[in-house]
Amino acid sequence: MAYHITKAVIPAAGLGTRFLPATKAMPKEMLPVVDKPAIQYVVEEAVAAGLNDVLMVTGRNKYALENHFDRVAELEATLEAKGDLAKLQRVQESTGLADLHYTRQGDPKGLGHAVLQAKMHVGREPFAVLLGDDLIDARDPLLSRMIEVQQARRTSVVALMEVDPSQIHLYGAAAVELTDEEDVVRITGLVEKPSAETAPSNYAIIGRYVLRPEVFDVLETTAPGKGGEIQLTDALQRLAVAPDWTGGVYGVVFRGRRYDTGDKIDYIKAIVQLACDRDDLGPELRPWLMDFVASLSAPVK
């Protein structure tokens, strides 16, 4: 039976320790990327792909996430009274984006455990998982293509990106076989954060998944893996080697623009890149940036 995919799960229970002390009292997902929190870009991506039912899996001290997507009547009334309709519209954009739900992960037992918390909400239908650290440029659609592949092949689908072999230890890595579609591969094996010497390829798993509900059955019996956590990669490995039962796992190879906001340097790069591309900021920022870069190579007086 074919299901129209409508549900997205966004795990957002991490502590954000790489951004301390900024994340001591503020969720890492609320760190601004130009003038919107990172989490809003992710929800907008889900909605653009037709997924209007969004479940966030949160943890302690994540109330700011719920507040951001809720109404702020006093602020809206103040902006309206001042006639600042442009800012009012920006504030209201996040409120009506999607049908948002929230559940708590409780113990921080890993990404696989976080996804498992969505079982009751999702039910027995395919669904998407979007990780908040990975921002996909809206001009380079990925999730809609993954949904298309899932619907056509009735399988679980992960997003892959070719990375420098020296960086593969930062990701889950996939062993793949080519298919009749240029951007689609069949995944024959997965390993979490392998060394460059043991990695099956330089195809790295990035933070987008479209999964069949059988993944919940597998996660319930998946033992803690790397880092003592229940790894989603380990569950996907089990799905990949049991295609008769699960349909296997396929990958969509993404060659577009991706911004990693989970790393300090890449987070700064994301802000600069996105700001430079904006019509309201780019014309002033780009010339300044070029002058600044030139000044870095100028001799010190």
Automatic annotation (TrEMBL):
Keywords, in A-Z order: Nucleotidyltransferase, Transferase
GO molecular function: UTP:glucose-1-phosphate uridylyltransferase activity
Enzyme Commission designation: 2.7.7.9
Top EC class, one word: transferase
Swiss-Prot/TrEMBL catalytic activity: alpha-D-glucose 1-phosphate + UTP + H(+) = UDP-alpha-D-glucose + diphosphate
Record domain Nucleotidyl transferase: where: 7-273
InterPro entries, per the entry: GalU_uridylyltTrfase_bac/arc, NTP_transferase_dom, Nucleotide-diphossugar_trans
Entry's Gene Ontology BP terms: UDP-alpha-D-glucose metabolic process
Domain of life: Bacteria
UniProt cross-references to Pfam families, sorted A to Z: NTP_transferase
PANTHER family documented for this protein: UTP--GLUCOSE-1-PHOSPHATE URIDYLYLTRANSFERASE
NCBIfam families xrefs: galU
Sequence similarity: Belongs to the UDPGP type 2 family.
Protein name from the UniProt record: UTP--glucose-1-phosphate uridylyltransferase
Gene label: galU
